[in-house]
Design a protein that fits this description.
single chain, alpha/beta, Rossmann fold, N-terminal domain of TfIIb, five-stranded mixed sheet, 6 helices, 12 strands, globular
Amino acid sequence: MPTYEPFDWYETPVYYDIIYDVDTKKDTTFLEQCYAQHASDGGKSKKLSILEPACGTGRLMTELATRGHRVAGVDLSKGMLDFARKRFKEKGVKGKLIQAPMQDFDLHNFPMKRRGSAAQTRKGFDLAHILVSSFKYLQTEQDAADCLNAICDHLRVGGVLLLGIHLTDPDDDNRYLERWRAKRDHLDVICTVRTNPPNHKQRTEDLRSRVVVRDLKKPNAVPKRYESNWTFRTYSPSQLRSLLRKAPRLKHIATYDFHHDINTQSSLDGDDLGVVLVLRRER
């Protein structure tokens, strides 16, 4: 059996970034389309102010900034934020980054000016998003509710939050494996994530990520092997609905799946457990 070296997935961001960067352009287009379709102004604003809690390596922020949007992000990991700043510099874009928990942050001083009117400012971000289940790192109901309300505090009335989350079937006690492979420059990265059967009583599920890295410039070298472990909080559809009631200013107006196809809406009670909720701030 090969030996895997323990490592912090989030303080060693380059491999994480290679794996998840594959769909960046598609994901950012989906964000723009969701805003155009579901924001209260009918998507008339083309250049948006966009907030990303748990922004990670800044892949989505960077792409959005290259499209002319103003971006701000929050993350707990210094390694991720350092990587994001380096990416901004390489791409020649700007974005605001702060190190803070996603349930307790303050970006109210972030400038959100309407294009063409220096005197007029928006009262909050147009769009916020957490697309890839990072929300499930919050281990308590209070932290999860605080996160939704903190984001809502930063959204303008009529702005939207996209919340991506993989639901848990309360009758399912199986173990699941997902595998991705991606290449960048001379690095070939294979990532395998194992999700263990959930503890339904405690509402937790343990995950393990194993990463195998091959340097294509050194075909005879032994691949590097790394392992990271973490715990998510679980949500069934009813548990997620219960949580949303604790953020009453947000209204659930649409559901998509993880394919991020604006033309195909899903359901919170459908067969696909990977859902993206569109939540609009109503007041």
